[in-house]
Design a protein that fits this description.
With about 210 residues, the chain is mainly α. The chain has one domain. It has ten helices and no strands. It has helices at about 5-25, 40-45, 50-70, 70-80, 85-100, 100-110, 115-130, 150, 155, 160-165. The longest helix has 22 residues, at about 5-25. The chain is globular.
């Protein structure tokens, strides 16, 4: 794979993950995308350092919030009587701030590389949805707005109880899946380092002490 493509594809995958979240909610209503939204992000972050994973998460969060709040520019221009460039700048600032959840999520998941994906990824998102204040609050539960059967749990748990099961889909549960590592529930698992060949004949245990 060319170097430029290798560097760019994680951000393309994270953009796809972010876009799938706002496309799952109103007014687009592709609700089934919510369960798949973290898959491109996990693929993009495989083997990444926590810092790089945070940047990948930021890009996903920016795309998600920019798509979800696309109407803000027109609202500010029409009712706030602001120039279009100012409205655009406010839209980008808002989207960037609200992407902080994905920044922290990417960093956390990368730091916990090797833990079960179907547990770590949704739990991290639930904790961040609970703790991070938004200017325009929203939860992953909004992706299931028109699915009453899924939303019933919210009467007991609130919207955070909807987030966890929606994001618990883990393609790496399949042992044949090359996505996130060799184990059935691995996440961002690094391959073990290759064992270097013996430096000299006398160090090779297969040849005996005297070679």
């Amino acid at each position: 794979m060319p170097t430029r493509l290798r560097r760019a594809w994680p951000f393309a995958a994270s953009a796809a993950g972010g876009a799938s979240i706002f496309l799952a909610g109103p007014d687009f209503d592709f609700w089934w995308l919510a369960s798949l939204s973290l898959v491109p992000l996990l693929l993009a972050m495989r083997g990444a350092t926590p810092r790089r994973a945070a940047w990948i998460g930021f890009w996903a969060g920016l795309c998600c919030n920019a798509g979800g709040f696309y109407w803000l520019v027109g609202l500010l221009e029409r009712f706030g009587h602001l120039p279009l460039p100012v409205g655009f700048a406010i839209w980008m600032l808002l989207s960037s701030y609200q992407a902080v959840v994905f920044v922290a999520w990417g960093w956390t998941v990368a730091r916990l590389a090797g833990r079960p994906a179907m547990l770590v990824a949704p739990l991290a998102m639930v904790a961040l949805e609970l703790c991070v204040p938004f200017m325009f609050p929203w939860y992953m539960a909004v992706t299931q707005a028109w699915r009453p059967a899924v939303l019933q749990i919210a009467e007991v748990t609130g919207p955070l109880g909807v987030t966890f099961p929606r994001l618990s889909f883990d393609p790496s549960r399949s042992r044949t899946s090359p996505a996130l590592g060799p184990g059935p529930t691995s996440i961002l698992r690094h391959r073990p380092p290759a064992v270097s060949p013996p430096a000299c004949r006398s160090c090779d245990p297969s040849r005996g002490v005297n070679g």
